[in-house]
Amino acid sequence: MHKSMKVVMVGLGYIGLPTAALIAAKGITVHGVDVNADVVKTINEGKVHIVEPDLEGLVTYAVARGHLKAHAQPVPADVFLIAVPTPFREGHQPDITYVESATEMIIPHLGEGNLVILESTSPVGTTERMADLVYAKRPELRGKISIAYCPERVLPGKIIFELERNDRAIGGLDARSSEQARAFYALFVKGKLHVTTARTAEMCKLTENAYRDVNIAFANEISLICERLNINVWELITLANLHPRVNILQPGPGVGGHCIAVDPWFIVSLAPDLSNLIRTARKVNDSKPHQVVEQVIRATAGHSAPVIACFGLAFKANIDDLRESPAVVIVNELLARKAGRVLAVEPNIDALPKRLVAGGELRLVDAATAIREADILVLLVDHREFVDIDPRRLSGKTIIDTRGIWTQVGSQS
Ligand code: SAJ
């Protein structure tokens, strides 16, 4: 592997763009590919279409030096990376059509000695499927190219840091593929590079997110039990976590984002009869937003015209991403059930995206207005602006705190 090589990155989203920019910032030529013409245009202006700390600076730098350029189509190169979405379809069945079409896109450009790496979260067997697609159209390349799976495992909000620092599992379809992929990642990753098989690397990624989902489900289930038993769950978890072998995660309004709520289903679909815990965890976490709605509706009982303020719409703290957010599910359900007049506070956006939030009845307001006007304050996201609110300003209000920042240890509200 040498810095004079050329890399094609197919998919310039949350993973593809930061990875392409990081590689390009090392002086390697990266030819980015995206099917969205607006994304291509934005990147070529040195700008970004996603909010992520430090990303814009890196993209501006790489584009200005001519190391990164976005296009609609691939070209011949040394290394081909694929980082496209793998959503699920009806019945929680994995949908790998984007991986298949990205593979079809690069097939005509492949040549002897090339390395092809899939980074998208994928059901076990996808890398082999990719190889089948390649060799069906280009049988002469069998044994002449390397194919590997290397999942991304970066946390939105810390992508650039984690891209460089996290360890990686690298699974080649054969030993040469693994070694070639390892040498490639060594050019820009400072974390350790662990070589395994493609199937193990695929399962590893799914297992990491399913592990987190199961652990959050445990915390969410405990929180519901505590609510019924009138026990402060935050104090309980703090105390339980003092045990040297207990480390319970934080309950919340549900699990959002594009990974943890999706990936466990890939395991369930591969072995439905053996995935009882993983399936149940998904159900527990998916039911949590509706449980919060019931809690809010119970709280409205004493009010003739209740005003409900929801603090936070994003899927987690300090980001502007409202997609797959439990907070959005809760707000929409409160509106649909006409639970009261609903206000939303979301410091990370300027306007409500109409395609996400139903009806015209929702008002986006600042925290001070929400506190002044509302009877019931529902804390849904632990944004730093909400953590900073002096609890004395909330006295006299009914508080439903799904994140434990206003009703922490020792408090009984
Ligand atoms: N959440 C809780 N309680 C917790 C932790 C999280 O309710 O104790 C909720 C969050 O509020 C959010 C959801 O879970 O709604 C997911 O948030 P997250 O911060 O745990 O994870 P993601 O979805 O942003 O990123 C995950 C990461 N996976 C793991 O930590 C195992 C990341 O490393 C992966 O790269 C990413 O998925 C991915 O792309 O797969």
Break the fold down into its secondary structure elements and pairings:
Layout: E1 6-10, H1 16-25, E2 29-33, H2 37-44, H3 55-64, E3 68-71, E4 79-82, E5 88-89, E6 93-94, H4 97-106, E7 115-118, H5 126-137, E8 146-149, H6 159-165, E9 168-172, H7 175-185, E10 193-197, H8 198-229, H9 233-240, H10 263-270, H11 276-299, E11 307-311, H12 326-336, E12 341-345, E13 363-364, H13 367-373, E14 376-379, H14 384-387, E15 398-401
Helix pairs in contact: 1-3, 4-5, 8-10, 8-11, 10-11, 11-12
The structure holds ligand SAJ.
Structure, explained:
This protein has 413 residues and is α/β, with parallel strands linked by helices. The protein folds into 2 domains: 6-191, Rossmann fold; 208-409, 3-Layer(aba) Sandwich (Rossmann fold), CATH 3.40.50. It contains 14 helices and 15 strands. The strands form 3 sheets. An 8-stranded mixed sheet has the order 3-2-1-4-7-8-9-10, sandwiched between helices. The chain has a 5-stranded parallel sheet with strand order 13-12-11-14-15, with helices on both faces. Strand 5 and strand 6 (93-94) form a beta hairpin. The N and C termini lie far apart (60 Å). The model has no long low-confidence stretch (mean pLDDT 95). Bound molecules: ligand SAJ. Ligand SAJ binds next to helix 8. Ligand SAJ is lined by residues 121, 152-156, 208-209, 212, 216, 249-250, 252, 255-257, 259-260, 315-316.
